[in-house]
């Protein structure tokens, strides 16, 4: 049933049809205006009124989707106009035709109308699919947030395993000074009670394995010599023995459940950091040769930030700044992977 004069109804719809073709038309606003007009013409709760709500307006500024939306609007409005015109003809013919003939004409008109708009069941299926995709996206986001939270958290008690090696056939390093400064900084930290520092001197391949098994560290810090092929520990005579990158990666893979961060304070350790980062959330290495002053300054700045409750990414930046503040070269050498 049409609630207003037929000519007025057609004028309203033709005006909205003209708006569809304007480039600047806001489809969502047009949908709202069209809903008011259709309710005035056909009545609230009518099939036509409900179909206005189902018209798609979400297009994300995609020209193809905008064009598709406008085509849907245009066809729907044209269908209503034709419906009104046919309705007018039917009203006139009802006087001259039998009730059966009127029903047949009405059925034809109804079939034509149904061909112009999407099936309600399909619309409902599309809507449920959209809602399902949205729920899936929320679930994936929750998983990513949980992973990020685990990655950023170091745990309640943070155990640092400091591994030092300065073979007698290599240049002597100031590892004792590095340990002293790190330990002193942690003792002054606001969260000092959350940190435990364990130190292993003159590590060999065997003592390295045993320390990892015994201590269950949260952070592993290696200070010593190295090159692009591996890190240098000591053999039974105190000379350098290279542990290759692949072996280092395999070792840390075994302890990936507990270890959150590895610091390789040795020259050219970026290659080892890459191997270890396959298993550990955060790994710090050195892109090239690093001098003692820069290495020590970085370590002190890094652990001072952790002791103040900062996350690893912030602590890394603090370590870089500490090198700059020390006035020595090398602030561009540390690299954070993770």
Span between termini = 67 Å
Q: Tell me, what's the shape?
A: rod-shaped
Structural class given helices, strands, pairing? alpha/beta
Give the low-confidence spans: none
Count of distinct strands: 9
Order of helices and strands: HHHHHHEHEHEEEEHEHEHHE
What CATH calls the topology of the largest domain is: Rossmann fold
Within the largest sheet, what's the order of strands?
2-1-3-7-8-9
Beta-strand level of the residues, as a percent range?
Answer: 5-15%
Mean pLDDT: 86
* Tally of individual domains: 2
Verbal overview:
The protein has 338 residues and is an alpha/beta fold. The chain has 2 domains: 6-118, no CATH class; 153-337, 3-Layer(aba) Sandwich (Rossmann fold), CATH 3.40.50.1460. Helices cover 57% and strands 13% of the residues. The chain has 12 helices and 9 strands. The chain has helices at residues 6-20, 27-42, 47-54, 63-93, 99-116, 120-152, 175-188, 205-215, 245-254, 270-276, 292-307, 312-326, and strands spanning 158-164, 195-200, 219-223, 225-227, 230-234, 240-244, 261-265, 282-286, 334-337. The strands form 2 sheets. It has a 6-stranded mixed β-sheet with strand order 2-1-3-7-8-9, sandwiched between helices. β4 (225-227) and β5 (230-234) form a beta hairpin. α11 (292-307) packs across α12. The longest helix is centred in the middle third of the chain and has 33 residues, at 120-152. The two termini are 67 Å apart. The mean pLDDT is 86. It comes from Pukyongia salina. Residues 92-154 form a coiled coil. This is CHAT domain-containing protein. InterPro entries: CHAT_dom. Residues 191-313 form the CHAT domain.
């Amino acid at each position: 049933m049409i609630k207003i004069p037929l000519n007025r109804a057609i004028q309203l719809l033709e005006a909205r049809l003209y708006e569809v073709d304007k480039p600047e038309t806001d489809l969502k606003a047009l949908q709202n205006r069209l809903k008011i007009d259709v309710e005035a013409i056909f009545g609230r709760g009518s099939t036509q009124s409900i179909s206005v709500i189902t018209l798609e307006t979400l297009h994300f500024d995609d020209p193809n989707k905008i064009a598709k939306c406008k085509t849907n609007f245009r066809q729907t409005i044209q269908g209503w106009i034709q419906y009104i015109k046919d309705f007018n003809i039917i009203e006139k013919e009802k006087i001259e035709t039998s009730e059966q003939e009127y029903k047949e004409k009405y059925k034809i008109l109804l079939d034509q109308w149904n061909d112009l708009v999407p099936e309600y069941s399909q619309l409902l299926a599309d809507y449920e699919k959209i809602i399902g995709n949205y729920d899936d996206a929320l679930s994936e986001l929750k998983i990513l947030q949980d992973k990020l939270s685990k990655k950023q958290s170091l745990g309640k008690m943070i155990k640092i395993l400091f591994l030092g090696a300065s073979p007698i056939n290599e240049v002597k390093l100031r590892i004792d000074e590095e340990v002293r400064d790190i330990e002193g900084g942690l003792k002054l930290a606001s969260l000092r009670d959350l940190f435990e520092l364990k130190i292993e001197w003159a590590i060999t391949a065997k003592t390295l394995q045993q320390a990892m098994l015994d201590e269950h560290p949260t952070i592993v810090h290696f200070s010593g010599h190295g090159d692009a092929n591996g890190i240098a520990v000591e053999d039974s005579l105190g000379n350098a023995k290279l542990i290759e990158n692949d072996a280092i990666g395999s070792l840390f893979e075994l302890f990936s459940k507990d270890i959150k961060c590895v610091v390789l304070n040795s020259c050219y350790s970026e290659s080892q950091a890459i191997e270890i980062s396959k298993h550990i959330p955060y790994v710090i290495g050195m892109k090239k040769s690093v001098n003692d002053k820069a290495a020590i300054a970085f370590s002190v700045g890094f652990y001072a930030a952790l002791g103040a409750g900062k996350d690893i990414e912030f602590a890394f930046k603090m370590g870089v700044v500490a090198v700059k503040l020390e006035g020595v070269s090398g602030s561009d050498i540390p690299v954070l992977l993770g």
